C-alpha cells in the first residue's frame, strides 16, 4: 500500500471546515430554540386536563421520535414541493431538525413540568394569578432552569445530527469533508480531521454548557 | 410515468420487502455486535485499573462525540484506503455496531455503579468472590436498570440505519429513492418510509416495555 499521509490539504481547507462547523452549531442553535417553543406547547398539552390535547400531542411525540431524521429531511425537502411547499436547502433542514427535536424537548419539558411542586402553582393561585399568569411567570421560569442539563445534552446531540444536512447539500462539516475527500482523495486526512473536529467541538460545548448550567441551576 | 400510488406500490412490493429485510438485518446485527462490544468496553470502564479505564473512557467519549453519519463514511472510505475492503453492508453494520457499543458501554457502567454499596458489601460478607458478586449481585440489578436505555439505543441504532443508504446499502431509504426516481411520487413514498420506520421502531419500543414489565421486581 503506497499511501503517505499528508495533512497539507486539510490546512489549506481549514477555513472551509471551520465554516462548516460553525454552520452546524448555528443550525443546531436555531433548531433548539424553535424546537423549545414547539416542545413547550406540546409539554403543556401533554399534561393538560383535556384528553384531546393529551392524545394529539402524545401522537406527535410518538410518531416523530420513531421516525429517522433522514426520512423527515427527505420528506420535507423532496416531498413537500409536491404540494407546493418549497424550501431552500438550509431552511428545509432547520425545519426538519426543529420538528424532530421538538418531540424530544417536549418529553424533557413534560418531565420538568411534572417535577414542579404543586404548592408553587397553588401559591400563585393564592395571590390571585390566573392560570395563564401562573404558567408564564412561575412555571416556565422554574422549568427552563431545571431542564437546562437535559436541554444542553439535546443541543449537543442536535449538533451531531446536523451532519445529516450533508445529504441535502447544506455545506456543513460533513459536506465539506466529503468534498475534500472526493476532490483530493485525501481520505484518511479528511475523515480523521472531521472526527477530531466533531469530538473537540462537542467537548468544548459540553464544558461551556456545564458552566451555564451551574449558573442557572436552582440553588438547593 | 407514474400510474398512481397504489399501482406503483404494488409494482415495487418485492424491492420494498427486500429493503425492509435489509434494514432489520443491519439493525439487528448492529445491536447484537454493539451490545457485545459494549460489554467488553463497559467492564474495564467500570472495574478496570487506571490504564484500562482510561482507554475505555477515551473510546466511549470519542465515539460518542462523532455523528453516526461521519462514523459510517469514515469506516467505509478510510478502511478501504487502509487496504481493508469492506462491502457497504459490512462497513454499515460495523460502524453502527461501534456507535451503539459506546452507548451500551456507558449505560452498563452507569447500571453497575448504581448498584447499592450495601449489596456489594453483603456479597463480600457472605464470602462471594469478585466474579460471583458481579454475576449474581451486580449484573442482574444493572441489567434490569439499563433495559429502558438499552431499548432506546436499539431504536436509535435502527433509526441510524437509514444513514447507511448513503454508502449504498439498499435498505428502506435507498429503495424509496429508487422507487421515487422512477415515478416521482416523492411525498407518498417518503411518507410510506416514515410509516414503515415508525412501525418497526414503535414495535421495538413496545416490546421493550413488555419485557420491562416482565422482569420488574414486584
TrEMBL record, chain A:
Gene Ontology MF terms: transmembrane transporter activity
Keyword Zinc-finger belongs to the record: no
Keyword Transmembrane helix: yes
Membrane topology: Multi-pass membrane protein
InterPro entries (alphabetical): AA_ABC_transptr_permease_3TM, ArtM/GltK/GlnP/TcyL/YhdX-like, MetI-like, MetI-like_sf
Subcellular location, principal: membrane
BP GO annotations: amino acid transport
Transmembrane stretches, start-end: 23-47, 59-80, 92-116, 123-144, 190-209
Pfam families to which the protein is assigned, alphabetical: BPD_transp_1 (PF00528)
Compartments in which it is found: Cell membrane
Keywords: Amino-acid transport, Cell membrane, Membrane, Transmembrane, Transmembrane helix, Transport
GO cellular component annotations of the record: ATP-binding cassette (ABC) transporter complex
PROSITE patterns named in the record: ABC_TM1
Domain ABC transmembrane type-1 as annotated: residue spans: 21-209
Family: Belongs to the binding-protein-dependent transport system permease family. HisMQ subfamily.
Name of this chain's protein: Unannotated protein
Source taxonomy: unclassified sequences, metagenomes, ecological metagenomes
UniProtKB/TrEMBL annotation, chain B:
Record CDD domains: TM_PBP2 (cd06261)
InterPro entries for the chain: AA_ABC_transptr_permease_3TM, ArtM/GltK/GlnP/TcyL/YhdX-like, MetI-like, MetI-like_sf
PROSITE patterns recorded: ABC_TM1
GO cellular component: ATP-binding cassette (ABC) transporter complex
Start and end residues of each ABC transmembrane type-1 domain: 20-208
Subcellular localization: Cell membrane
Membrane topology: Multi-pass membrane protein
GO biological process terms on file: amino acid transport
Regions crossing the membrane: 14-41, 62-82, 189-208
Pfam family, one: BPD_transp_1
Keywords: Cell membrane, Membrane, Transmembrane, Transmembrane helix, Transport
Record flagged with keyword Cell inner membrane: no
Listed GO MF terms: transmembrane transporter activity
Chief location bin: membrane
Protein name per the record: Unannotated protein
Amino acid at each position: 500500500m503506497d499511501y503517505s499521509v499528508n495533512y497539507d490539504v486539510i490546512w489549506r481547507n481549514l477555513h472551509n471546515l471551520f465554516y462548516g462547523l460553525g454552520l452546524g452549531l448555528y443550525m443546531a442553535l436555531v433548531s433548539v430554540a424553535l424546537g423549545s417553543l414547539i416542545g413547550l406547547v406540546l409539554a403543556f398539552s401533554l399534561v393538560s386536563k383535556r384528553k384531546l390535547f393529551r392524545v394529539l400531542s402524545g401522537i406527535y411525540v410518538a410518531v416523530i421520535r420513531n421516525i429517522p431524521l433522514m426520512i423527515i429531511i427527505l420528506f420535507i425537502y423532496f416531498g413537500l414541493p409536491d404540494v407546493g411547499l418549497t424550501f431552500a436547502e438550509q431552511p428545509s433542514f432547520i425545519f426538519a431538525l426543529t420538528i424532530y427535536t421538538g418531540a424530544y424537548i417536549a418529553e424533557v419539558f413534560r418531565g420538568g413540568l411534572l417535577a414542579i411542586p404543586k404548592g408553587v402553582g397553588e401559591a400563585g393561585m393564592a395571590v390571585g394569578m390566573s392560570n395563564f399568569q401562573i404558567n408564564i411567570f412561575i412555571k416556565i421560569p422554574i422549568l427552563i432552569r431545571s431542564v437546562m442539563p437535559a436541554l444542553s445534552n439535546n443541543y449537543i446531540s442536535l449538533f451531531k445530527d446536523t451532519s445529516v444536512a450533508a445529504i441535502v447539500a447544506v455545506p456543513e462539516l460533513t459536506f465539506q469533508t466529503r468534498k475534500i475527500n472526493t476532490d483530493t482523495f485525501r481520505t484518511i486526512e479528511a475523515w480523521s480531521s472531521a472526527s477530531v473536529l466533531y469530538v473537540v467541538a462537542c467537548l468544548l460545548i459540553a464544558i461551556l454548557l456545564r458552566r451555564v448550567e451551574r449558573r442557572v441551576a436552582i440553588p438547593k | 410515468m407514474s400510474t398512481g400510488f397504489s399501482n406503483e406500490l404494488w409494482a415495487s412490493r418485492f424491492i420494498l420487502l427486500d429493503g425492509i429485510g435489509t434494514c432489520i438485518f443491519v439493525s439487528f446485527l448492529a445491536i447484537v455486535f454493539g451490545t457485545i462490544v459494549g460489554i467488553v468496553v463497559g467492564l474495564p470502564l467500570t472495574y478496570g485499573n487506571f490504564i484500562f479505564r482510561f482507554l475505555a473512557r477515551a473510546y466511549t467519549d470519542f465515539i460518542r462525540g462523532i455523528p453516526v453519519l461521519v462514523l459510517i463514511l469514515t469506516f467505509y472510505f478510510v478502511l478501504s484506503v487502509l487496504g481493508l475492503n469492506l462491502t457497504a453492508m459490512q462497513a454499515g453494520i460495523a460502524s453502527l455496531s461501534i456507535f451503539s457499543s459506546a452507548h451500551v458501554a456507558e449505560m452498563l457502567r452507569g447500571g453497575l455503579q448504581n448498584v447499592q454499596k450495601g449489596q456489594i458489601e453483603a456479597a463480600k460478607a457472605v464470602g462471594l468472590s469478585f466474579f460471583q458478586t458481579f454475576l449474581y449481585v451486580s449484573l442482574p440489578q444493572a441489567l434490569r436498570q439499563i433495559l429502558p436505555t438499552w431499548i432506546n439505543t436499539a431504536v436509535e441504532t435502527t433509526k441510524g440505519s437509514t444513514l447507511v443508504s448513503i454508502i449504498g446499502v439498499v435498505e428502506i431509504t435507498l429503495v424509496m429513492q429508487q422507487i421515487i426516481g422512477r415515478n416521482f411520487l416523492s411525498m407518498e413514498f417518503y411518507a410510506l418510509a416514515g410509516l414503515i420506520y415508525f412501525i418497526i421502531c414503535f414495535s421495538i419500543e413496545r416490546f421493550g416495555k413488555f419485557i420491562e414489565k416482565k422482569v420488574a421486581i414486584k
